[in-house]
Amino acid sequence: MSENEPLRNEKLTPVQLNAIYLERIGKEQRHQRLHTEFSINPHKRLHVLTDKPMSRKPTELIEEDSAFIEAFHKARLEPTKKYSTPLTESQEIGWVSDPLIPSHCQDQRFNFHRASTDVTRHTESALRKYN
């Protein structure tokens, strides 16, 4: 132990306590950073609560911040519209989701419309009789 450190059994004097306090405050101020920038967390939804219906308080007029609104809309976009290439391997699957074959409504291979057969017609008529 050095000469400047008090023994653990000794009580600290007010001068020593003040020196410890000043050292601690100086250390906190060196490491403290003030954050003034606000940004939206894109992973959380932003919920705006309205006033109560019977409230007599006048609504506040707030200036529209175009940068904030643009950042809000950009955060809500799909990943393919936000980025030019996929950022993760899981995004690579399905990144290019354009159909390989152009779809036509008349193409029977890809469109399975509801059709009635003799079995379905018989079942429908039987159900109508009992209802």
Quick overview of this protein structure:
This protein has helices spanning 14-31, 66-75, 79-82, 89-92, 118-130.
Give a verbal description of the structure.
With 131 residues, the protein is an all-alpha fold. Helices cover 37% and strands 0% of the residues. The chain is built from five helices and no strands. It has helices at 14-31, 66-75, 79-82, 89-92, 118-130. The longest helix has 18 residues, at 14-31.
Which residue ranges are poorly predicted, with pLDDT under 50 across at least 5 consecutive positions?
Answer: none
Distance between the termini: 97 Å
Q: In terms of structural class, how would the helical and strand content be classed? A: mainly alpha
* Total DSSP helices: 5
Radius of gyration (Å): 35 Å
What does the overall shape look like? elongated
Q: H/E series, N to C?
A: HHHHH
Largest sheet: none
% residues in beta strands: under 5%
Mean pLDDT: 82
Oligomer: single chain
Count of extended strands? 0
Q: Helicity level, as a percent range? A: 25-40%
Keywords: Cell projection, Cytoplasm, Cytoskeleton
Family: Belongs to the CFAP144 family.
Protein name: Family with sequence similarity 183 member A
InterPro entries: CFAP144
What is the strand and helix layout of this fold?
Layout: H1 14-31, H2 66-75, H3 79-82, H4 89-92, H5 118-130
Question: Key features?
Answer:
131 residues, mainly alpha, 5 helices, 37% helix, cell projection, Family with sequence similarity 183 member A
